[in-house]
Amino acid sequence: xxxxxxxxxxxxxxxxxxxxxxxxxxxxxxxxxxxxxRAAGPELLAECRTLGGCRTGDAxxxxxxHLPCKYVIHTVGxxxxxxxxxxxxxLVSCYRTSLALAKEHGCETVAFPLISSGVFxxxxxQALRVAVDTIGGFLMxxxxxxxxxxxxxxxxxxxGKLFSDIAEYIxxxxxxxxxxxxxxxxxxxxxxxxxxxxxMAVSVAGSPLDALLNDLDAGFSETLLKLIDRTGKKDSEIxxxxxxxxxxxxKIRNNxxxxxxxxxxxxxxxxxxxxxxETKDFIARxxxxxxxxxxxxxxxxxxxxxxNYDIFAINEALFAFDQSLLxx
Length: 328
Description:
Distance between the termini: 5 Å
Strand order of the largest sheet: 1-6-5-2-4-3
Number of helices: 15
Largest sheet: 6 strands, mixed
Strand content: 5-15%
Oligomer: single chain
Structural class: alpha/beta
């Protein structure tokens, strides 16, 4: 998917470029910066000595040496001083200049840490929001796969209010059974490579999409294309909003019998801003349903009921609750 939040060590990411949250000297330090220099070897430090440092909000590119990537993009995030000294603007600039450098050098995959959220003291929930908003905005205009790499749970935090609101909604709606239908499915099923262990849901006359389609047998691909036409938007606007790449959308468009994974089907429901009943009808055409015995499903339902169709915000929450993310 174009933007994915992953728990990993950024020095082990096999991407075109990783981003280093550096200090102004670019000569190494602690945290992510120190880890990248150690993994890359002394050649990285030698090249950094030739760069003359870097200003806050800017970025510079070097070779990656012993890292499993082509480039390291060094950017200097702001030190948190309470939020009234241009910290947000400087942090946004870190992501934008890094992404521009990556694009300039032909990178198709880039991995970022959560810049400034460590010793620089930027509040983690605010740093996450800036990262997701800025990267998401870039991906609406450009084709690239970007990973936001979180080393451990302590380094990741959504807003306390959002977390508590979702947790309360789960408490009110989640039916705790011995098995969680969606999460229990084997990985091959969850990723869409095998048939889900549930009967194909059938649309019923009078359902929310029936008046639009006038065809109860319309499959997922046909329904999706008709719904996109209904919005009056370009295909690219919808698949980017769904956090789905162009290649997968092309497969869906060209194959009337395409069967998506549940996460992909729901991603398009979110991108199309369908209400809850429309969403249930839409994903039923791919053979899926929403259930209160699945925390994943309950979280999706929460966001639809709130009319919050920001897929990146939804994925932040899903990650925080250790659920699969929406998209391809």
